[in-house]
Amino acid sequence: MRSKGYVTMLDPFQQIYGKRMGGLLFIPALMGEMFWAAAIFSALGATISVIIDIDVHASVIVSALIAILYTLVGGLYSVAYTDVVQLFCIFIGLWISVPFALSHPAVTDIGFTAVHAKYQEPWLGTIESYEVYTWLDSFLLLMLGGIPWQAYFQRVLSSSSATYAQVLSFLAAFGCLVMALPAILIGAIGASTDWNQTAYGLPDPKSNEKADMILPIVLQYLCPVYISFFGLGAVSAAVMSSADSSILSASSMFARNIYQLSFRQNASDKEIVWVMRITVFVFGASATAMALLTKTVYGLWYLSSDLVYIIIFPQLLCVLFIKGTNTYGAVAGYVFGLFLRITGGEPYLYLQPLIFYPGYYSDKNGIYNQRFPFKTLAMIASFLSNIGISYLAKYLFESGTLPPKLDVFDAVIARHSEENMDKTILVRNENIKLDELAPVKPRQSVTLSSTFTNKEAFLGVDSSPEGSGTEDNL
To answer: Which family does the entry's similarity section mention (predicted)?
Structure first.
């Protein structure tokens, strides 16, 4: 994708499936970015309120204003440079707090409590046989559903070269593991603490249903005050780093894939920059409002992350690697995946399921939960329906079973060649010349490699390092 010169994650979708399909895919992508920003703003407010006892609303508003301001002023440059500083703050701040928390007299050896019950069950925990499929479903959701996010693609697509983008991705994966270590240790410390010996007292955070706030609680009650502030800075840096990326991601997708490609194809770079600045403010204010007013913001983000996994991930696989998929298959996969996800229910939102899969049960609130990995099932169904309907539509139109006038998406009849590319953008970026738009190339023979590679998404591949990101100019 970097070699092709794409600017946003949605570019290949609009290139192959058309602008309207790109607009549909923008919805779950936007929901994911917005709800994620709102969720972490809410988490920051709760963390600050625990440690320094100030008003939650004030802390959320001030943090959001800072993130919006430097994103407005510097765009991707400010986000990238501040992320470096914030990453350093996260690493140093959390690692400094770990030795102080471990040395607190109320904390038992975490190696012992990992496998032995002391103040609560061993913190390593166990997975019952009937929970295996639920864990597998969540594991695949986090692993594969974490790929199709614009916050990630805006980094790799703005890299100086495709090779650097690959190296950056591999290093980031390793970095995630390293950065998770202090958080794991702090959680283990919280489970190994006799809270009756601390100012927190009993019941312990887990029994008090505050296990999700264990990090700020450990910082406040097991560390000196000055160390707590270092830890608070680490948490704040993590939140700001994620929030500015999400806000910029949403605004860049709107400015390029909705405003420019759908409404104002001849818009100047300056106009696009101003659209991005306006939407940075709008999306940032909206995320802040949701963080302040919506109590189920985590539930909304949880559902939107499911939609990214179930809808966008299989579409991304198809548009890049499956030759012959078209708009009809994309729409079918979108609708079918969305239907299976919603009908599977969501306990966090008190949404009862309409389809009961094997192993379902009712919780204490009377909400039915699914043990069956229906999210992965919905993702696979979306993927297969995209392929199946695409080839069915292709066969029906090319065989003459359906007349060309019924090809309302111009997805089959008009797309035997490079004409499926967005001509305006291609010519503007000098990927092809005007006299190359007319010829229709003869079809290639069907081979294994040609069948499973969507060459339409990689036409005119150029690995040159020149950048083309409008975001850099924000």
So the answer is: Belongs to the sodium:solute symporter (SSF) (TC 2.A.21) family.
Q: How far is CA 255 from CA 217, 258, 295, 316, in A?
A: 41, 6, 30, 21
Of 116-120, 316-320, 461-465, the least confident: 461-465
CB-count exposure of residue 439 (10 Å: 0-12, 13-18, 19+): exposed
Q: Are the beta carbons of 403 and 386 closer than 8 angstroms? A: no
162 CB neighbour count, 10 Å cutoff: 19
Rounded Cα distance, 355 and 341, in Å: 10
Supply the range of the domain harboring residue 6.
1-296
Give the CATH number, domain containing residue 243. 1.20.1730.10
Q: Each residue of 269-280: pLDDT tens digit?
A: 889 889 998 999
Mean pLDDT, range 86-114, rounded to an integer: 89
416 part of a folded domain: no
Task: Identify the residue whose tokens are 């006799």.
Answer: 194
Residue 37 maps to a domain: yes
Average pLDDT over every residue of 351-355? 92
Instruction: Specify the pTM.
Output: 0.81
Kindly indicate the confidence band of residue 464, based on its pLDDT and cuts at 50, 70 and 90: very low
Answer for the pair 264, 87: CB distance below 8 angstroms, yes or no: no
Taking residue 180's Cβ as centre, other Cβ atoms within 10 Å add up to 10
C-beta of residue 376 within 8 angstroms of C-beta of residue 140: yes
pLDDT tens, 366-379? 889 999 999 999 99
Q: What separation in angstroms does the CA of 22 have from each of 15, 27, 36, 334, 472?
A: 9, 9, 21, 11, 22
| pLDDT value of position 384 | 97
**Which ranges in 322-462 belong to alpha helices (H)?**
327-343, 374-398, 423-428, 448-451
* Number of domains, the chain: 1
Give the span between the Cα atoms of 9 and 312, in whole angstroms.
Answer: 10
Q: Are 423 and 442 in contact (CB under 8 A)?
A: no
Number of C-beta neighbours around residue 413 at 10 A: 16
Max Cα–Cα distance, the chain, nearest Å: 80
Which one, of 246, 256, 304, 308, lies nearest residue 280 by Cα?
246
Query: pLDDT for 113-137, tens place per residue?
Result: 999 888 888 998 888 888 999 999 9
How many other C-beta atoms lie within 10 A of the C-beta of residue 101? Answer: 24
CA dist list (Å): 217 to 109, 123, 213: 19, 17, 6
